[in-house]
Automatic annotation (TrEMBL):
This is UDP-N-acetylglucosamine 2-epimerase (non-hydrolyzing). The keyword Isomerase applies. The keyword Amino-acid biosynthesis does not apply. Its EC number is 5.1.3.14.
Length: 381
């Protein structure tokens, strides 16, 4: 029996770690514990409730106007106490958040093994996305076992000197999550969404909140969205507005009260995935949506200049448009008005998984600790 503590703190992490937590609970040779940092509080709690996960530890670190330094300090101090009590054999962290890096560092200080889920994603620019790119690289340096979602991610790790035997290609756990959340006849709890004519309107789902887009980036995105909805009478926008006031104030000032523009607080996981399933296309600066939308056949315009997920770009289902007003508007109008251009993107192949990533990760952990000699069938696309 090996004790594994899964650590996460934000809504995107929680969505992707939830199916893994559920798979760990099934394994007879693994004692599974969950620790949340609550780097994001309200949005994290939505996911915990959705997937019926009750954490064993909740560090509850979120503070108003929190800084990266403050988050890091509180995670390190909180996990020091958790590790002293639990003495885990391994911790699992996910992706690129400050919780991820601080969790890996806290485990390293106690000489506890680190497993990095969604490992190996890179833009090769330490400030884009910030601080996510360096969170990934630093966590990769601390990790003992790396769960890469794609061959490209594995190749990045190999170039950084990670031993091949310590890397497993698993696919992305977000695809596992979507197997349990998307329903064809879904009825939204958010009543405003039930009033939207998804059949006859081209509904664009938008999220934009990343730190590097604060200020001019968000302002440009809002200007482009205004142009898109004004120039296309068959378009409606659903903007899921991040709760951070730096983002929320700008969005409501620029888009509030506009016809055919719906500004909503972030939805729970199930509503988000089903909105994505019903919408025409997605515009986002999120990382996770670049994986989720292609799984549902939805074109994605990425409101960033670089992405650590190049596979969907090369497969043709995702396009980088940055935050230039003219670029965003022209690329959106192309998809809205050109059926062939839309069809090419919507039918592109999703390279990110088959719904079995969590199983592969648990199989690899059992092999790593000698609990099983069964071969791990890696994800190959």
């Amino acid at each position: 029996m090996k004790k594994i503590i899964t650590i996460f703190g934000t809504r995107p992490e929680a969505i992707k770690m939830a199916p893994l937590v559920k798979e760990l609970e099934k394994r007879e040779r693994i004692q599974s514990k969950v620790c949340v940092t609550a780097q994001h509080r309200e949005m994290l709690d939505q996911v915990l409730e959705q997937f019926d996960i009750t954490p064993d530890y909740d560090l509850n670190i979120m503070k108003s106007k929190q800084t990266l330094t403050g988050i890091t300090n509180r995670v390190l101090e909180g996990l020091e106490e958790v590790f002293a009590e639990e003495k885990p054999d391994m911790i699992l962290v996910h992706g690129d958040t400050t919780t991820t890096f601080a969790g890996g560092l806290a485990a390293f200080y106690q000489q506890i093994k680190v497993g990095h889920v969604e490992a190996g994603l890179r833009t090769f620019d330490k400030y884009f996305p910030f601080p996510e790119e360096m969170n990934r690289k630093l966590t990769g340096a601390l990790a003992d076992i790396h769960f890469a979602p794609t061959q490209g991610s594995k190749n990045n790790l190999l170039r950084e000197g990670i031993k091949e035997e310590d890397i497993f290609i698993t696919g992305n756990t977000v695809i596992d999550a979507m197997e349990h959340t998307v329903e064809q006849d879904f009825i939204f709890e958010t009543e405003e969404l039930n009033k939207i004519d998804f059949e006859n309107k081209k509904v664009i789902m938008i999220t934009a909140h990343r730190r590097e887009n604060w200020g001019a980036g968000i302002e440009n995105i809002c200007e482009a969205l205004n142009k898109i909805v004004e120039e296309n009478e068959d378009v409606e926008l659903v903007y899921l507005v991040h709760l951070n006031p730096i983002v929320k104030e700008v969005v409501y000032e620029r888009l509030g009260g506009k016809e055919r523009v719906h500004l909503l607080d972030p939805l729970d996981t199930k509503e988000t995935h089903n909105l994505m399933n019903k919408c025409f296309m997605v515009m986002t600066d999120s990382g996770g949506l670049q994986e989720e939308a292609p799984h549902l056949g939805k074109p994605v315009l990425v409101l960033r200049d670089v992405t650590e997920r190049p596979e969907a770009v090369s497969h043709g289902t995702v396009k980088l448009v940055g935050t230039d007003v003219t670029k965003i508007t022209s690329e959106a109008n192309l998809l809205i008005r050109d059926e062939k251009a839309y069809e090419i993107m919507s039918k592109a192949v999703n390279p990110y998984g088959d719904g079995l990533a969590s199983k592969r990760i648990c199989d690899a952990i059992e092999v790593y600790f000698g609990l099983s000699d069964k071969k791990v069938n890696e994800y190959i696309k």
